[in-house]
Amino acid sequence: MMITRRSLARRTFLRGLGTTIALPFLDAMVPAFASSGLPGKKPVRMAFVYVPNGIMMDGWNPDYEGKLGELPRILKPLEAHKQDITLIGNLTHNTGRALLDGAGDHGRCSGSYLTGIQVKKTLVDIKAGVSCDQLVANEVGKATRFPSLEVGLEDARQAGDCDSGYSCAYTNNLAWRSETQPLPPILDPRALFERLFGDGTVLSPEARVAQAAERRSILDFVMGDTQKLKSDLGPTDRRKLDEYLSSVREIERQIEKASSDNAQIDPKMDKPYGVPADFAEHFRLMTDMVTVAFQADLTRVLTFLVTREGSSRAYRELGIPDGHHPLTHHQGKPELMEKVRRINEYHAAQFSGWLTKLKSIKEGDSSLLDNCMIMYGAGLSDGNRHTHEDLPTLLAGSGGNHFKTGRRIVCRRETPMCNLFMTMMDRMGVKTEHFGDGTRPLEGLDLS
User: Which SS3 state, helix, strand or coil, does residue 432 take?
Assistant: First the structure.
């Protein structure tokens, strides 16, 4: 720990046995920023949140442009964040459209979502392209513990509806380090927690059970560093630190509860350690940990696969026992279309809850959400017809007061989605003359 005249180095950690906890932005760190010529500057975080199987666009697109007024049904859960979001219409992924590649519509739309490159399947290999998040991670990731994080809530192989390794590779992954190397998302909250705060030790299932029987909070192991740090902080920073560590402990508690609940349901269940049975709880746990990672500047780049593309997950908590994917092939039947709308609303409500959390966390005179740009959307618009134009696209946060929010922008038809990616990459300091089928940053998004 580095403390000089009640000021903290930006990279200050609480350390204990097998534990490393980075700190959030504190007022005591301002001198460290000032000495670097960047007084109080907070990092910008970039995230992509992907929902599967398209969205019922009659409940997504407003019938107006400009300042956001009444939100359509599917976006109603985001009403409290209306001034923090930007809706962008008419973005297209041409590379997701039907080609003789054998990958299938769902494989193409997710496999090319962040790459803008046509996915290809051969007898011996799969090929996509380097995704935009990884191009950014290669640059800004040098300043953080993790260049990027990849998280998700469902794996096709666990769901039992993945027909081949090829389609799994496309539908299970958003991030691609190279054209043949996807980065699989972490699904288990315990695994993500241990990656963020542990020492990297991989435990066997037996060791996990033994550890759980005598588990202590990781905060117990850093108690000495914590008390020493508090004695050198002002009251505002002490409150911020207490709130931050309390959120870490609450995440621990929820993971322990999920582990216990799973054991009570079926101790022989082949289920990742600590994955909640409840979708909303699982979503909240993963986003709570991502929030901590953003607060502590452990990473600035995230991909979040809400569920895999082509998912046939049932939402029994909504009274919907039918699989999501089959429902989207509703053939115009009103009762099936209504079920899809309810699933779309449910996903939007979980996302809204995360935005509420991000907005509640202060970073200087702004919020954590203000210093994020989080894209929420899908690789299909109409899931019934498998259309790849006018994709549902929402940008939350202003990227550090860079984007003008609270409005709807309608681009010219067939505008490449990759133009938006180029804008986001540029904001992260990664400039490129083209990306995928994108040729220039998206116009009309910046404040200027």
Answer: coil
* Angstrom distance (rounded) from CA 127 to CA 412: 30
**Strand 301-305, strand 149-152: pairing:** parallel
CA distances from 70 to 10, 349, 354, 410 (A): 42, 16, 21, 17
Report which residue type is found at 352: S
Paired sense of beta strands 120-121 and 176-178, if any: unpaired
Q: Which of 146-155, 205-214, 263-272, 421-430 has the lowest mean pLDDT?
A: 263-272
Degrees, nearest 5: CA angle 220-222-224: 100
Tokens of 30: 């301002």
pLDDT tens figures, 276-294: 889 999 999 999 999 999 9
Burial of 410 (0-12, 13-18, 19+ CB in 10 A): middle
Angle between helices 279-295 and 334-360 (to 10 degrees): 30
Please tell me what DSSP assigns to residue 317. Answer: G
Whether residue 124 has pLDDT greater than 50? no
Nearest to 260, CA basis, from 246, 273, 251: 273
Q: Give the DSSP H or E segment for 105.
A: helix 105-111
How sure is the predictor about 274, in pLDDT bands with cuts at 50, 70 and 90? Answer: low
* In the chain, where the domains are located: 10-318+344-427
CA gap 195, 189 in Å, rounded = 10
* Two tokens, residue 294: 């953003």
Residue 324: strand, helix, or coil: helix
Residue 73 carries which DSSP code? G
Q: Following CA atoms 327, 282, 355, 245 in sequence, which dihedral angle do they give, to the nearest 10 degrees?
A: 180
Among 198-207, 264-273, 382-391, 406-415, the range scoring the smallest mean pLDDT is: 264-273
Put simply, whether the predicted model's pTM sits higher than 0.85 gets the answer yes
Question: What pLDDT, on a 0 to 100 scale, did the predictor assign at position 267?
Answer: 40
Q: Are 82 and 145 in contact (CB under 8 A)?
A: no
Distances (CA, A) of 226 to 19, 93, 98, 188, 246: 13, 49, 56, 28, 12
Give the residue among 157, 166, 148 at the shortest CA–CA distance from 303.
Answer: 148
Sequence-separated (6 or more) residues with CB below 8 Å from residue 53: 106, 309, 310, 311, 324, 325, 328, 378, 380, 383
pLDDT for res 196:
92
Asked if 153 contacts 93 with a C-beta cutoff of 8 angstroms, the reply is no
